[in-house]
Amino acid sequence: MKVWRSERIGCDGWLPLECFLDSYAGLELVYTVWNGSELAHLCWVARQGQKTSLPRIQVPQGEAEVRGAYTFPRYRNRGLFRIALARILNDLAQEGVQRVFAHVRPENTPSMKAFCQLGFEPRAVCEVVCRLGWRRVRFRDPHGQGLSPALVC
């Protein structure tokens, strides 16, 4: 990914933030979908002990978080994320991961649809409040079942 980024940045100077999760979040596992030499989709996985997408929370033992998925605009609406997610879930199950979660904005309909098609179900609405350098996370459970990640499989 680092080599691809350096080549890409030299070409047009713009890459989405999702292309840099290894650098700023310390993630190591990325799934990619390519069309020839062109990156069409990428999706990161945070494993046990790594930071989640929520502040000050690490991935618990036996779990993984799917995060930072991005499909480049010209490749959207082709089901690439669903295909990548199915592969991710299969690989994680083979590694012994027992629970996979994700945090998805409710208005991100294509991602919500892909997650739900593969067995995830919404568990809570998570709000991250940012104020002058600090963040607070609030969970709101629509079913009255306590606090949990937004999507769980």
Automatic annotation (TrEMBL):
Domain N-acetyltransferase per the UniProt entry, residue ranges: 1-141
Domain of life of the organism encoding this protein: Bacteria
Keywords (A to Z) from UniProt: Transferase
Keyword Metal-binding: no
An MF annotation (GO) of this entry: acyltransferase activity, transferring groups other than amino-acyl groups
Keyword Transferase: yes
SUPFAM superfamilies: Acyl-CoA N-acyltransferases (Nat) (SSF55729)
Pfam families reported in the protein's UniProt record: Acetyltransf_1
Protein name: GNAT family N-acetyltransferase
